[in-house]
Amino acid sequence: MSRFRRGHGILLWMLALLLSFAAAQQDGFVSIDCGATSNFTDTVSGIVWTTDEGFVGTGENKAVQASVNDNARQMKSLRFFSSDRSKHCYTLPAVYNSSYILRAMFLYSNFQAASDQYSFQVSIDSTLADTVNITSVEVDTPQVFEYVVVATSEYIDFCLLPVDGPPIISSLELRPLAPGMYDVVHDGIYLKNIIRLNCGTSGADPTVRYPDDPYDRLWITPGPTYTVTTAQTSIMILVPDNNFDKPPKLVMQTAWLGDLWWFTPVPQYELQKTGSYYTSLFFAEIQTVKASDIRAVKVEYNGIFWDDLNVTVSTNTLYQRDLIVDTQGVNFSMSALPFATLGPLLNAAEIYASRAAVVMRTDELDVAVLVSVKADLGLNSWAGDPCLPVPYSWVTCDNSSSPRVIKIKLSDLNLVGTMPESLGALTALTDLWLDNNQISGVIPDLSTLRLLKTLTDGNVNLCSATENCPVLAAPVPGGNNKSRGVSGAVIGGAVGGVVVVSLILGLFLCLHCRRRRRPPSVPAAMSETASSDVKGASYLAGGGGGAVAPSSRSGASTVGHVNQARGFSLAEVQHATNGYEKKIGQGGFGLVYYGKLPDGSEVAVKVNSEKSGQGTTEFINEVSLLSRVHHRSLVSLVGYCEESGQQILVYEYMSKGTLREHLYGKDMKGTLTWTERLNIAIDAAKGLEYLHNDCSPKIIHRDINSNNILLNGKLMSKVADFGISKLAPDGDDTNGVSTLVRGTTGYLDPEYYALSRLTQKSDVYSFGVVLLEIICGRAPNSILHAESLQYNLIEWARGQLLDNNLESIVDPVIKSGAYNMESLWKVAELAMGSLEPHGVNRPDMKQVGRGLTEALEFQLARSSAGDGGSDPYLRIDSSPNATESYPTLQSTVSSVPEHAGATGGCATLFTPSSTYLRLPSDTRGADPGRTYPTTR
């Protein structure tokens, strides 16, 4: 069977671009015909292509002789940029915290005589994304780079960075995605498209894109070297609304049939960037089959079992978030399950490389000052972050986590304008070179620049505030500008209190007008009642300003610049929930109802109960905190309502409910495999790590439990319920913060309970209990119905582990599938280490997350022995006679032996004196050098 290679088909789909039904362009599309001199509308797709004007301030236009279809007019020109700048940036308008497809195309054609090879780099905001290499034999081959990104401000900067020769670009596109699509993407992760296949089509079939795909993804036809049986239908395939990545119906109407072997090479540079891939395979029945027929497909990649499913006329999707590949690429295989009467089928597929995005930004105040410097000195063609991923050619930055500008060198550039008053706010500045230009006006107060050591002269029309500044005609370019200089000593004390006030006002205006979105302010009605728990309006707004006045609606309040969280009226809430028709849960805050907003978005609506004991403080805390923290592993607040004495929170809807509902209890919504449990734990750990380490100020959740970890349709978890969260103390967390004891019984840190001192390690303890729940499938406190006796999960698990008897506590649901014993031991060790009586001996959440990732690697590890055999690491126990092990009511050891000090990491959580030490690998019959399979 021949293989489909990524290189095949790219030119074909470029030549057949845009062949679909005409339609009006969707809102939010940005389509730039780089290098063009006029706009045009594609008569086939309805997409409006515009020139570069307004998006970039540098570069020159060039028409080229591209051998492409007439409908691909945007490929017949390019824009090229000089090599004497560090970067050239397009600034694309976006909606904060929304996800987009960002696609750039490069076709060199006959731009100029190509050398054997030249290259340039591209960046997205602060992240260096890729290198574009062009060789003399590839000048007529379009290169396409496509990403899924989240907007971290109201703009996305796409920059070209010279390396070897002038950068060029042919077209640049931005396409908004629906909420929930590709939701692995957040401000720390972006995706690069590797391949997107419309299976079942042939070379004569056009590429599917907008309007057949409303998000304008390009679904390409497989290359001619891949031969397989195909089928198609005219029946409209159902794509359910809850299918997250929403494949277009036209793509789902064709499919590959029969046993499939599909090989996708991955370029070597991809492997150097990441070992993690986001993969979606789409399945839907397109043939007329008998009622008795069953199409059941088993899917493997690189010999590792992925999943199996029954194919129906409704679109089914397999998702893999952490597909790990080796240097050879990805080998997918699809075969029929033994009980199936029909062979396998595949309609479409997507593979993305998952990459880490740089979340650093240049210091906000420094950015605001440089905005004014560029405006006052005519440097507005410089766009993008001043320091990242490379600084402006005239700027030098330090290497801090939020880079500061330390040098500005603008000598001999014939600049015209004035020195902005805000320069005095660049407090890290050591060198300022503005000599030999035509800058005029008053020199601002620079006495605050205590590190400034170099300041040169040569601007004849500059003067200090103590001088009579001349009224100047427009400066003459090239004139003599070296006749008079101004010394640094004069500058240092030149300006009095009036200019200081002007400086402060100017900085506030700069910060108000700067393009990066500010964190939300506090509802006015809330700011008056904020307690010390929430530190007032400054904390609630992330330091970004005061309260906002209530709206004109009676009793309603609004949040200014809320990041996708807004004030709802009570009538809007009642309409969304259809009069609180469908109850979906209950928590400490009150009842939770299902709702749907006018735009179709599903939401969970929490209505405060008078009996909840949680009031205004918790309401303020949760609204304000979730309006300023954003992470894919934290539940998103859509909005809130405070009207007629009611307090209501509106969240994104997590369709699979709570983690607890998938582990135990009479209302279980489903079961979870060990791999799924590991992924859920990793997601939740990342959310907590973000709160502990990346928020400013840092946050302690204070109520981690399995009911506050929610699952979406892909079983991705998010941490919820922030009503009683607290700010962590600055610096060392050892001493914690004194506060009343709050939280959920069974999860409370004993050190916090005894001393009323809350620390980040209190969250770690609670998370350790959750890890035990994940392993055991049991509640923290429960009753053995056979004996009607209570037991404590921690003490029971501790006793069994002291006896080296891990299997006795493992949830029978886990035992019914495939699990890796090394992976289970790893998580058990993490759990018990997190449950150490003294917080100093517990790991932090970063260490816990790292340990969980290692456990997942054990679980996904491969072995040449594909069936597991007698492998003690891989245990498959589906025997109907398997009995459950019940807790030991009287443990011989009351607690884990205390450590002398904190451990150095998560890999070794117990001292040699601890009886938790496991038997060495060789005594269990396992080869220490082997890795083990996960085949069911």
UniProtKB/TrEMBL annotation:
<dbReference type="Pfam" id="PF07714">
    <property type="entry name" value="PK_Tyr_Ser-Thr"/>
</dbReference>
<dbReference type="InterPro" id="IPR017441">
    <property type="entry name" value="Protein_kinase_ATP_BS"/>
</dbReference>
<keyword id="KW-1133">Transmembrane helix</keyword>
<keyword id="KW-0812">Transmembrane</keyword>
<feature type="signal peptide">
    <location>
        <begin position="1"/>
        <end position="24"/>
    </location>
</feature>
<dbReference type="GO" id="GO:0016020">
    <property type="term" value="C:membrane"/>
</dbReference>
<keyword id="KW-0067">ATP-binding</keyword>
<dbReference type="InterPro" id="IPR011009">
    <property type="entry name" value="Kinase-like_dom_sf"/>
</dbReference>
<dbReference type="Pfam" id="PF12819">
    <property type="entry name" value="Malectin_like"/>
</dbReference>
<keyword id="KW-0732">Signal</keyword>
<keyword id="KW-0547">Nucleotide-binding</keyword>
<protein>
    <recommendedName>
        <fullName>non-specific serine/threonine protein kinase</fullName>
        <ecNumber>2.7.11.1</ecNumber>
    </recommendedName>
</protein>
<dbReference type="GO" id="GO:0005524">
    <property type="term" value="F:ATP binding"/>
</dbReference>
<dbReference type="InterPro" id="IPR000719">
    <property type="entry name" value="Prot_kinase_dom"/>
</dbReference>
<feature type="region of interest" description="Disordered">
    <location>
        <begin position="862"/>
        <end position="900"/>
    </location>
</feature>
<feature type="domain" description="Protein kinase">
    <location>
        <begin position="578"/>
        <end position="856"/>
    </location>
</feature>
<dbReference type="InterPro" id="IPR024788">
    <property type="entry name" value="Malectin-like_Carb-bd_dom"/>
</dbReference>
<keyword id="KW-0677">Repeat</keyword>
<keyword id="KW-0433">Leucine-rich repeat</keyword>
<keyword id="KW-0472">Membrane</keyword>
<dbReference type="GO" id="GO:0004672">
    <property type="term" value="F:protein kinase activity"/>
</dbReference>
<feature type="compositionally biased region" description="Polar residues">
    <location>
        <begin position="878"/>
        <end position="895"/>
    </location>
</feature>
<dbReference type="InterPro" id="IPR001611">
    <property type="entry name" value="Leu-rich_rpt"/>
</dbReference>
<feature type="region of interest" description="Disordered">
    <location>
        <begin position="917"/>
        <end position="936"/>
    </location>
</feature>
<feature type="transmembrane region" description="Helical">
    <location>
        <begin position="489"/>
        <end position="511"/>
    </location>
</feature>
<dbReference type="InterPro" id="IPR032675">
    <property type="entry name" value="LRR_dom_sf"/>
</dbReference>
<feature type="binding site">
    <location>
        <position position="606"/>
    </location>
    <ligand>
        <name>ATP</name>
    </ligand>
</feature>
<dbReference type="InterPro" id="IPR001245">
    <property type="entry name" value="Ser-Thr/Tyr_kinase_cat_dom"/>
</dbReference>
